[in-house]
Amino acid sequence: MPELNLDTNSWAALSFEKSAQISNGFEDNSSSSFSRASSSSALSNQPVNRNQVSSQSLFNANPNPNPYITSAAIVPDFNGDGRTDKIWVDAQTGETQIWLMDGTTVISKGNFPADPNNPPGSIDYKIGDFNGDNKTDFLLRNKVTGANTLVLMDGTNFTNLISLDPLDGNWSPFIGDFDGDRKTDILWRNNATGENAIWLVDGSNSSQPIKSGIRLEGLDATWTPTMVDFDGNGVTDIFWRSTTGENSAWFFDGTQVNKNSLQSQDASWTFSLGDFNGDFRSDILWRNTTTGENKVWLTNSLIPNNIFFTEGSLTTLDANWKSSIADFNGDGKTDIFWRNQTTGENTTWLMDGGSIVTETFLAPSSTTAQATFGDFNNDGRTDIYWRDYATGADEIWITNADGTTVTRTPIADTERLSPIQVGEDGNPVLGPDGTPLRKWVTF
Ligand SMILES: [Ca+2]
Ligand SMILES: [Ca+2]
Ligand SMILES: [Ca+2]
Ligand SMILES: [Ca+2]
């Protein structure tokens, strides 16, 4: 393990000595331990442990019952106070900022200078909770050098920087908890070879942060993985979708994989995830980008490692509308935010399973503004952060009690971050399409 200087509290501290050898870091002998879903033994696996999931909310400060909304492994909360925090990256310099939020107020800022070894655009930022302290951490993946670093956070401070084995640039990380120990693990997918592998991570053990590296079956490049929890047991499952329209689900319990093939949906259907009936099982919102049709698949599970879906049709909305997932009334059932990218109109659907309970029309917002979501005041209801990429005049919309109205508050002028890149000549830096490039970007 390289020696780290934690005192500098700087991203530049990440530029420690890296192993010259790019190794794959995986054990080669473990694939034989996986069995197929078709074998009877796969069905006699451990029962769904609902307590494991509900206990997550006991550790979280936020009153929303749904870990999908409150988990610091999913939504940035660096100080674990149940209030979503903001991450900013300067696309021009690579500088990073973290804002700890209390409602519409920035209560603390961490400012991390650019690291010369990580030039702008080289880093893939993933968030997780790698040591299980209910405070958000980072996996910093340098896509160019292949370096991987866990940055364990407490508020705006680093508590540890852990260098993991490098992996060449063909490997992409995906974040989940594949053994249900509430410490975030990493699925690695090789975009060139189709190889897949899991690192089970324990960030609290800096001398052996990777508990085990496990090779999974390969899948060709038409397949894309998405991390879900279809059976609601607090252990991440993988939803695979192919450009051919095929879908499948893999359940992984730390020792074996069970595979289900799911009904196909042709390639004009895109999807996002939610939990529309609040049973902690990931549901799928399908949207047909050609026809504008929308529908949900509510996930049911009668036996562990196996699922079926109930389909519900929703209102059709034309292709200008883009959906996001939130929980505006804080009942643990995720709702849908619709944004018309042409007109700036905003609509919310409060959901109960496959039904729209309430449709609300919020005020329109500038078409140069982009929404990100979180609960900034810890009342269990999702709020909206609007970043205006033309003016830098940002707003937070705090959601009121029944989830159908918002209170709009501008972010203080003193916190304003430049929205566009300016060159040394004082003029905006233009992208290939002739529009100014974004500078401070939030996600
Ligand atoms: Ca927070
Ligand atoms: Ca884990
Ligand atoms: Ca809701
Ligand atoms: Ca809120």
From TrEMBL:
Span list, region Disordered: 25-62
Gene3D superfamilies: 2.40.128.340, Integrin alpha, N-terminal
Record field: compositional bias (Low complexity): 30-44
Keywords: Signal
Source species, domain of life: Bacteria
The keyword Disulfide bond is annotated on this UniProt entry: no
Keyword field contains Signal: yes
Biased composition (Polar residues): 45-62
InterPro entries linked: FG-GAP, Integrin_alpha_N
Record SUPFAM superfamilies: Integrin alpha N-terminal domain (SSF69318)
Protein name per UniProt: VCBS repeat-containing protein
Source organism: Calothrix parietina FACHB-288
